[in-house]
Amino acid sequence: MKATEAKLLQILVAVSRFIIPIYQRTYLWTQKECQQLWEVLCADSSYSLLA
After folding, report:
1. Which of 14, 30, 31, 37 is deepest in the core (most CB within 10 A)?
2. Is 25 among the domain residues?
């Protein structure tokens, strides 16, 4: 599997099939983890969801 850099908006609008490795399939995001991610994205003024 090869990782590449992409903007969040590109990922959200792309018609893709995501393959989740077995070692990550048991990982569960709760509202707490989602909130932490959102706060980090909002706090980083250099990060743009649209660019």
Report:
1. 37
2. yes
Range of the domain at 18: 8-43
Question: b/e map of 8-18 (b: 16 or more CB within 10 Å)?
Answer: eeeeeeeeeee
Q: How far is CA 12 from CA 2, 22, 23, 26, 32, in A?
A: 19, 22, 23, 23, 21
Angstrom distance (rounded) from CA 15 to CA 29:
23
> Could you tell me if 48 and 7 are in contact, meaning their C-beta atoms sit under 8 angstroms apart?
yes
Query: Along the 51 residues of the chain, how does pLDDT read in single tens digits?
Result: 688 887 878 877 887 777 778 887 788 889 999 899 888 878 866 656 555
